């Protein structure tokens, strides 16, 4: 009998890269906006707020554990156009356009000018979707990384023309977190968990130790299966890689969004442990988030229905800093 580990996440392999993929997005069809952002985990803190739930402590001051995320300087550096195969339904990248100023910093061959934007706008009927290409600069934070993080974001909108106008208007411009999310909104947070290396079945799956009179070993599994099966089933706990996996925490509430000039509100006097002080825009999210400090985190709008009734902005009494 094991108390840890799940076949839902099988196999337990190491993540290929630190930037998690966002494969699904909620289609709202409202005002155009970006679908996700990336940030770095600074550390945890606590916040005092008025309880706006239906719990017995409703309208009373409560203390909540929260995670502080620092959002690095992020820019829109390009537009990506997709075409859909009418037979299979698969999407394929058909074309890309880049901001000349940002592309030069990224050492990309720039292909953008005003004339090309107009040409693509007249051919939008040939494409099935438009997305935004973004770049985050970790060098603006305390993360010891110089290479920019490039990622793609879904664009919400009623039509492809509306999406194109929104991305082209923001091409080469900085993206602020309050332009993507709202205070009180529920989001899904994806990250890579802490890596534990190679571990045995006791730590990896929480299996019980064998009796002390067992033959030779105590921290091993009791049996690898029945005699008639000519292989070891995947359901049998085995030692192997533990941690450093992709995980997504759903329905995490944004308690506070702050600009760069208000970052001292959340910085402890001695800085966050293993991170230092935040210097950019920040997000405060209720609860914990997978991964250690300085881990790259991807935030997107929640796929659930918690935002359907409207976003209720929390009333913050005190933020520990």
Q: SSE layout and pairings?
A:
Elements: E1 33-34, E2 36-50, E3 61-71, E4 73-84, E5 91-98, H1 100-106, H2 114-122, E6 129-137, E7 149-153, E8 155-156, H3 160-169, E9 186-192, E10 195-199, H4 201-205, E11 240-243, E12 246-258, E13 281-286, E14 296-301, E15 316-319
Antiparallel strand pairs: 1-8, 2-3, 2-14, 2-15, 3-13, 4-5, 4-6, 6-7, 9-12, 9-14, 10-11, 12-13
User: What's the helical proportion of residues?
Assistant: under 10%
Strand line-up in the sheet with most strands = 2-3-13-12-9-14
Overall outline: globular
| Structural class by secondary-structure content | mainly beta
Q: What is the average of the pLDDT values?
A: 90
What fraction of residues sit in β-strands?
A: 25-35%
Can you tell me the number of structural domains? 1
Alpha carbon gyration radius: 23 Å
The stretches of 5 or more residues where confidence is low (pLDDT under 50) are: none
CATH superfamily: Translation factors
CATH topological fold name: Elongation Factor Tu (Ef-tu), domain 3
Q: What does the main sheet amount to?
A: 6 strands, antiparallel, barrel
CATH class: Mainly Beta
Termini Cα gap = 44 Å
């Amino acid at each position: 009998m094991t108390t840890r580990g799940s076949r839902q996440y099988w196999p337990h392999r190491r993540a290929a890269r630190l930037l998690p993929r966002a494969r699904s997005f909620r289609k709202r069809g409202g005002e155009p906006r970006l679908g996700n952002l990336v940030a770095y985990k600074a550390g945890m803190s606590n916040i005092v707020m008025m309880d706006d739930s239906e719990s017995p402590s409703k309208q009373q001051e409560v203390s909540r554990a929260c995670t502080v995320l620092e959002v690095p300087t992020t820019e829109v550096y390009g537009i990506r156009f997709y075409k859909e195969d009418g037979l299979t339904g698969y999407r394929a990248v058909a074309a890309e356009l880049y901001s000349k100023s940002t592309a030069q910093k990224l050492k990309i061959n720039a292909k953008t000018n005003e004339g090309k934007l107009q040409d693509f706008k007249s051919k939008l009927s040939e494409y099935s979707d438009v997305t935004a290409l973004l770049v985050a600069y970790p060098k603006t934070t305390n993360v010891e990384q110089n290479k920019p993080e490039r990622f793609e974001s879904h664009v919400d909108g009623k039509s492809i023309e509306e999406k194109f106008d929104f991305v082209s208007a923001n091409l080469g411009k900085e993206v602020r977190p309050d332009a993507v999310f709202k205070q009180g909104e529920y989001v899904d947070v994806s990250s890579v968990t802490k890596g534990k290396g190679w571990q045995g079945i006791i730590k990896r799956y929480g299996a019980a130790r064998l009796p002390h009179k067992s033959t030779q070993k105590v921290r091993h599994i009791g049996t690898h299966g029945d005699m008639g099966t000519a292989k070891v089933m995947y359901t049998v706990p085995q030692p192997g890689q533990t941690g450093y996996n992709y995980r997504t925490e759903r329905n995490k509430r944004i308690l506070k969004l702050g600009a760069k000039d208000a970052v001292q509100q959340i910085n402890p006097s001695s800085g966050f442990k293993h991170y230092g002080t935040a210097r950019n825009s920040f997000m405060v999210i209720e609860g914990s988030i997978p991964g250690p400090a300085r881990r790259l985190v991807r935030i997107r709008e929640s796929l659930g229905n918690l935002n359907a009734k409207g976003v209720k902005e929390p009333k913050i009494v005190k933020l520990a800093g």
